[in-house]
Every structure is written in structure tokens, then in C-alpha cells.
Amino acid sequence: MNASAKPTLAFGPRVRKSPYHAATLRHGAKVFTVYNHMYLPMAYSEEPGRDYWNAVRGVQLWDVACERQVEISGPDALRFAQLLTPRDLSRLEVGQAAYTLITNADGGILNDPVALRVAEDRFWFSLADGDTLLWAQGLAASGEYRVSLGEPDVSPLQVQGPRSADLLAELFGDWVRTLRFYRFREFDFNGIPLLVGRMGYSHEQCFELFLRDGHRGEELWRRLWEAGRPLGVTAGAPNLALRLEAGIYSHLTDMDAATNPFEMGLGWTVQLDCKAPFIGREALRNIAAKPLKRRMLGAEIDGPPLWTGNEHRLPVLADGQTAGYLTSCGYSPRLAKNLAFLMLRRPFDEPGRRVEVQFPDGRRRAAVVNLPWTKRQRQRQGCDKVRQCQAQTQPQSD
Amino acid sequence: MNASAKPTLAFGPRVRKSPYHAATLRHGAKVFTVYNHMYLPMAYSEEPGRDYWNAVRGVQLWDVACERQVEISGPDALRFAQLLTPRDLSRLEVGQAAYTLITNADGGILNDPVALRVAEDRFWFSLADGDTLLWAQGLAASGEYRVSLGEPDVSPLQVQGPRSADLLAELFGDWVRTLRFYRFREFDFNGIPLLVGRMGYSHEQCFELFLRDGHRGEELWRRLWEAGRPLGVTAGAPNLALRLEAGIYSHLTDMDAATNPFEMGLGWTVQLDCKAPFIGREALRNIAAKPLKRRMLGAEIDGPPLWTGNEHRLPVLADGQTAGYLTSCGYSPRLAKNLAFLMLRRPFDEPGRRVEVQFPDGRRRAAVVNLPWTKRQRQRQGCDKVRQCQAQTQPQSD
């Protein structure tokens, strides 16, 4: 190895391995990160855009076992789950999921899990990076709530891409084609216990398989791979370009405890008039009552493709002043554009405005746009069904 | 890159970089992990044992900025800090530190930070891997305690090895030589705000510099490096062999919420008769009242040097039965032995016993021994001063 070689990742016993870990290495996972104390594969092909095109043109398996579940069960499960999030969970049906924010007393964002109502008195929060279980356990220590909290043996695997329904219908049956967006059901796949949900970390057609027995991970992966061969199945990973196109945020990249839901454009997940108490209501009410000082917008950045994204938040300048900062950027092969998320302060938060982004190797010009890109894409394609389902999970925005 | 190349680590904006990150790359950091949402360098030299010998023979800088601080301040700081740990903090003086465990209501271990009393009403818990701040914030949400909680801008840097005092005396003054074990003081180093402590993640002579302004990290590193040149300073990292020799555990590797302090041999950090309440007392009292079902011991393993340690916990067998599991192992160049930590159930937890460890490539024989190795080493060398200081922080064990 020479001095300029890329640093490698230590594989040791402190960081946990996914039940699909051996499979991801076998299929050539080359770049990893660590997420919720687990190894998360990030890239397979070294050819720029290859992983992306494999996802959007075919069917792709993503090891996202690092999305750990906080399980809340017991007589007060609903009341305690509600305490954690400003999204009203009272009408969430068994078998239904919802994108939620976990907020602290200041209205800051601690995590942005998908909440699943697994049973009347059993919820899962499927986490972004962060030990939200410790937050929940700290809150529950008062003994006020009759709940059990834990991290169950659940390892999500996402099946992404336009052929994902074909693959799963072949294996599980045609019922998967009729599964509505953000709905899931229990399924026993030859003894492999699953929850199968129509959801995932993109706005493409995708499904999430919540494996409920880590010992069956290798078998599940192999069965999917074999059935997927005729469809050209590939291994992939949560994709920067796909999430930028879709306006999907990454917790700790784009938002954290110093950010509130409204400036992120996630006010639609906050129900201030929710009947049951939740943490952060007073702070969020105060924030909502005042004009926003800054907000997250999209941007299209000039210049050569930004294949590898950014390593740090980058300053954004307008009219010679600091207008805000860039949190994420990358190149969308499908749109043939560099996309970015910018946190822009007033009065610079206007779609159409020209700004400059200070990259380590120089400034680039950019145009501010509304988020997301895929919504407009879907509208152009007349994908009413997707929009209809999307509306169920984003009641105030779509 | 060929298929057998080691996976690289993704460098992106989600995982934070230490103020010393650029310096570690400049000095050739080749292997990283992620710890408390930060990059942590793990190895510099590819020559087995080189980093280790550099540490034990000279002076070495370790970027451990990933040891984040939970800061507790306010009128109820002592009472709230005490709530978090079974170690009695009432007699901890300002300028004194203590190794502590954070326990949950079941007596399980959530973290093993060093607690520092920075002021009468200000404590830091210098964390192992885990979002203990969320646990503390959850507990404080009741509003019962008048405390502020947060993660301050503090970035620890360790100076390790027999020449560490010489290096720091040269830069800071001779007072560092008289600093007692687990004591620290504030020090303004040409405008760089520090806490300088006599502590670190080894049982060698070592110091920990708690940098209180991340913007000054590069400058601090450069000053240390320049002053260290005549002493042969090197860059290093928390070292597997050093921590094994010293019987220092790694949270999430050797212990976690499923482990209690007594079976780890850390009962000396539990003061059941502590006057103020702490979480887990009742459970710990019950555990202490019964014979232990298992406990952590050392082992010396036969066969070729285990330079790279283990990737998983490994089964331990005795008399054809499962006797427990190995959590960590590695080769100590100084002792010319393979060392390991074994969690052994009764009646297999006896020093002197022969066991077998099931490695992926076959079984190896091992002899069970008491922990740690360096204590005996120190006794042989007659290092009374170290033992005396150690006794202050390990009142019931040494």
C-alpha cells in the first residue's frame, strides 16, 4: 500500500456485522461506513454511476440491517410512542408505517425513523444513526409508562428498483403487488419470519423486508439472489444520487439536534394539536408561530459531475455574503445534474436565486430550486398511483 | 483494486472528523474505525508490532477526540452525575477523575466513561462508544434536576509512552511530572485552552490533553510534534496489545448492557452504600448477593501471533463443553504471548485451567489466568508509585 492509498476500515468485534455481511462481501462491497454500531456497505462498483443505474433499471438488494428497531410494547405502547414524536400516531393502523421525527424538548431533531405499528400495543421505530433506544429508556425510567423497550432481532433488507415487485411476487406471491405505500404485513417465507413493507430509502419502487431472525439472513439473501438472476439482480447500497433526487434527508448529515422540523420542510410530520402529549410541543409551537430564519432547499450546481459528494458542510455565498451552507451534494446520472441540499437563511432562501458554493478546490455557481426533484419527475410521468400512496404518508405536503 | 483488496472506509459529512484528523492522515493513518459518530484512527504502520513498540519505547500521540464528553452542570450537577453511576462521586475533588460505569436499571453496563470533576458544579463523563448524552437527557426530561446537559467542544489527545512526561514538561513546564494519577488541571498553552490529565487508555506512562477549542487542534498537534522530534515522537492509536496487557476493557467489545459490573471484575467501581441514589442499585444489590454465574478472566493462547485480533466473539470449550466465549485477543510483543479476555461460566472460571478457543481456522489451546498482565509486570518492576496512584482510583481492588 502506498501513502496515497485510501484508508481501510478496521473490522473488529466492537462493530456488529449484519446477517447479510458475508453476502455483501461476496458480491464485492468495496466501501463501508459504520451506522448504529454496524457495518453498512456503501458502494460495490468502482465505475461511477454503475450502482445507481443498476438500481434504477433493474432490481437491487440493499443491506440496511443497520436500521435498528426501537421496540415499544405493553399497555402504554401507543401513549409512549406518541411521547417520542410530534407526528400523530393515534390513527396509525396495525400494518401501517409513517415517517416520523424524534424531537427533544427544544424541538431539535434526534432521529427520523419510520414508525411501524406492528400490533395494537407494539410499535417499532426503524432508526437512522443514533442510540434512540437510550433516549427512550431514559424517558421511561420514571416508571410512568407500562412499556417494555428493547432492540429486537430485526434486520431490514431493501429490494429496490422497477423489477423489485416482480422479484418478490415470484418468491412471495402476487399479493406484494397490491401492497400499498407505507403498508406492511407479516409473512412466513418457508419458515423465514418476515415483515414485508412497501417502503424504502428512495422514491423508486421499493420494498423493505424486516427479517425477524438474524440466523436466516444468509438464506434469505441467497433465495432473493437466485430468484433475481433472470431479472439481473445486483447488490447495491443506499445511494447518494437517489436520495438527493427524492429529497430524502440523512440524519446527522442534513439535520440534527440543532435543526428543527419546520426549517427542514418537515412541518407536515408535526401535529401540534395532537391529543396526547409529545416532547417538544411547546418549543415547536413557538417555532411555528414565528417566521423561519432559514430553511432547506435544493440546488443545482454547475461544473463537472460531483460523483463522490462532499466530506464536510460547505459555505454558500450570495451577493458577497454568507447565505448558508451545503449539507449534501452529488451527481444524478438520470438528471445529468449536480444536486445539493442547502440550508439558506432569509432572504436568500428563494428558488431561482443564484448562489455560489465554496468547495475545497474553488467556488461553483448554483441555482436554488424547490425539493424534491423526483416529485416533478413523477408528475411528468403521470405516476398517479405513486403520488396517491405518497399522499397517505405526507398528508399536508403532497 | 482487486476483489481481495480490503474494503475502504467512506469519508462523508455524516461522520465527524477530529480536529487532529488532517494530522493523522499526514502522518500516515491507514486504518480507521468509527466511534461516537467520529473517525478514529486505529493503525499507522503496516509492520506488525511497529505502532506498539513506538508507544512503549518512546512517545506517541493518539487522536482520541472521539471520546466525547457528556457535560453536566448546574446546582444539581453532583446529584445528577451520581444518578448515572454506581461509583460514589461525593468525594471526587475538583481536578480529580475516576473510572466509572454507567448502569441501567437492570445493572447492565451502558458505558464506561472516565468522570472528571471540572468544577464544584460541573462534571464531564468522557465516553466510550455510545450516545450516553441521550440517556442522560432522557433521564433529565422529568425536570427534577436543575442541570444543563450537553456535549462541549472538547477533543482529547493522548500522549503515551515513557517519554511522554519529558515531552510535556518541555512544552508545559515541570509541573506535569508531579501530576498524580487520575488528576488533571486547567492549563493555557499559549492561548490554547487545555485540561491536562495524568491518565489514558493504557497502563504505560501517559497523559490526556482535553483540548477545549477544536479550532486549535492542528496547532496543538504541530507544537507537540515539533517538541517531540528529538524524542522520536510517532503517531499511534489505542492499541489492542496495550489494552489487553493492562486488562482494559473496550465497551461493546468486552461488555455491554447484557453484562454487569461484578462479572467484569469491576465491582470495585460499585458502591452499593452510596448515600445518593443511582440507577441500578437494587439490581446490583441482588446480583452482588448471589454467586456469580460467569466472570471475565484472562487467557494465554497457544500458536502463532494473533496480530490482527478477532472479528467476532469466539466460543471457548472445556472438557467438551461450552465454557464461555472470547471477547478480545491479540499478540503482546513485549510478553511474546497471545493474550485474551474470556467470559467463563462456572465452574470453568478458574485460573490455571486449560481450555480451547474455536477460531474460524481451527481450535487453539489456552490457559486461563488472572487479569491484568501489567499489574504483575509493575509489581516485578517495583513500580510502587504507579501502584500507589492506581490504588486511589481502584480503592477496592489493588
What's the gist of this structure?
Two copies of one chain form a homodimer. Chain A is α+β, with helices and mostly antiparallel strands and 398 residues long. Chain A contains ten helices and 22 strands.
Describe, in plain words, how this protein is organized in 3D.
The structure is a homodimer of 398-residue chains. The first copy, chain A, is of the alpha+beta class and 398 residues long. Chain A has 10 helices and 22 strands. Chain A folds into 3 domains: 21-64 and 156-243, 2-Layer Sandwich (Gyrase A, domain 2), CATH 3.30.1360.120; 69-150, 2-Layer Sandwich (Alpha-Beta Plaits), CATH 3.30.70; 292-398, Beta Barrel (Elongation Factor Tu (Ef-tu), domain 3), CATH 2.40.30. Chain A has helices spanning 21-26, 50-57, 77-84, 132-140, 164-172, 217-228, 240-246, 281-289, 373-381, 384-393, and strands at residues 8-9, 31-35, 38-43, 60-63, 69-73, 97-99, 102-103, 109-111, 114-119, 122-126, 148-150, 155-160, 184-189, 192-197, 206-211, 234-236, 294-301, 314-318, 321-332, 337-345, 354-359, 362-369. In chain A, the strands form 5 sheets. Chain A has a 6-stranded mixed beta sheet, sandwiched between helices. A 6-stranded antiparallel beta barrel of chain A has the order 17-20-19-18-21-22. A 5-stranded antiparallel beta sheet of chain A has the order 6-9-10-5-11. The longest helix of chain A has 12 residues, at 217-228. In chain A, 53% of the residues are buried. The model of chain A is unreliable at 376-398 (pLDDT under 50). Chains A and B meet through strand 1, strand 2 and helix 4 of A and strand 1, strand 2 and helix 4 of B. Strand 2 (31-35) of chain A pairs parallel with strand 1 of chain B.
